[in-house]
Amino acid sequence: MTTARGPEVASRIGLVLGVAILVCFVTGLLSHWIQHPPQWFWWPANPVWLYRVTQGLHVITGVAAIPLLLVKLWSVYPKLFEKPLIGSPVRALERGSIAVLVGSLVFQLVTGLFNAAQFYPWTFFFTTTHYAMAYVAVGALLVHIAVKLPIIRDALTRPLESAPVETAQTETEAGGLSRRTVLVGAGIASGLAALAVAGQTVPYLRRLAVLSPRSGEGPQGVPVNRTAAEAGVEQSALAPDFELTVDIGTAQRTFSRAELAALPQTSAILPIACVEGWSASAVWTGVVLRDLLRTVGDLPDGDVRMVSLERSGLYATTVLPQRHVVDASTLIALDVNGAPLDLDHGYPCRLIAPNRPGVLQTKWLSRIEVVQQ
């Protein structure tokens, strides 16, 4: 009689979980580097949907990994507390890697899930902590694979249901489950978890996204993370004397909203894609950024800084790379979906650029200036 617990199930679940972890790691690195780019990093302006896909994949895969991790822990549970707990140096390395791996994965998945819901019951800064712990989790995973590789290889090459019993536990003691049943159940649970949030990214799945905190609801059909009230810009954004200052170093000019609206207008269908995994496409209308800069002087060959009416916060200012500056679909938007921007969407004007995280799409613009080299 075989037991449902054991290396046969653990190795197969672990293989899929390992792929999910690596997908989360790579897509998470991309998101972090886009927001905090190293000098060597390059991220294109096109295709416009690329960040929507990578960050959506990051969150969907992370949520799908939660049932896999639980089944993985269930499958090895008796062996986690086998004595001796430490033993030889190799065993100590094995036990240590398991403890770090489990702890870091639980931390990453739980905090990532809370971040997707914008729920922060902690005092540390999520972004940098999540980024640092990703390296810890992947490092522990690699050590664990290296130590367990002979067992993993042997378990994966054995027929699933015909391996000999390795513990005193019987199939009846395990609840009458076969290994195949456990694996199928894990796959179904993981798939359902993914569907429960995938609608944040995939419009055709929105009706199935029962656990998605952002699935298309919001002013003008676009979700909102940070409102004008939260940013403290209601009064300044609605001020009748509002002006957008454009400074290219050699020349400077100010524009009222009416003057911006009097310039040639362009529409582009672009997604807002946020780090929490949600995204929504909309028709944005406004002035092409490169054309606006040309009304002031020569088009700069460097990056451009966007400054919000919001005076504090991590994203009160953002830097737009030159390849986005010159892209024809990068707009200083005045309207969305055929109507003037809602105050919570950045009225009187905002940046909307292709293939950028939502946190870098500066709302309530007050100033555009060339970054001095």
From TrEMBL:
Keyword set includes Transferase: no
Return any one Pfam family short name: Oxidored_molyb
Q: Which InterPro entries match?
A: OxRdtase_Mopterin-bd_dom, OxRdtase_Mopterin-bd_sf
Alphabetically ordered keywords of this record: Membrane, Transmembrane, Transmembrane helix
* Annotated ranges, domain Oxidoreductase molybdopterin-binding: 239-372
Record's CDD domains?
SO_family_Moco
Q: Which residues form a coiled coil?
A: none
Q: Which residues cross the membrane?
A: 12-35, 55-77, 98-120, 132-151
Q: Does the keyword Endoplasmic reticulum apply?
A: no
Mind telling me what this protein is named? Molybdopterin-dependent oxidoreductase
